[in-house]
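The material for today's practical consists of a large collection of protein records. Read left to right, the backbone structure tokens trace the chain's path through space. An example says more than a description, so a record of this kind follows:
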Amino acid sequence: MLQQSLSREMALRSRAYRAASEAHECIRAEFQDMLDSYDGASAVYRAARNESFALREYRRVVRALLALIVDERTDSGQSSINITGC
């Protein structure tokens, strides 16, 4: 149940991050010639801050989901997750 909830939250946060990243890219392109003005620099700064926040939230949920998965595997006696592929 918790794992499904975190998986849904991860998908939601992933979409939010992609949207914020695309918005940042568009705003940076739109205000590229206005970076020396307050309005242009402010718009790009806000977009970058929103992207950074969205990425932080996505990472937070990913860490929580991974911790839950590792904890469940450890509790059930399964071996640790092999991330090296060996």
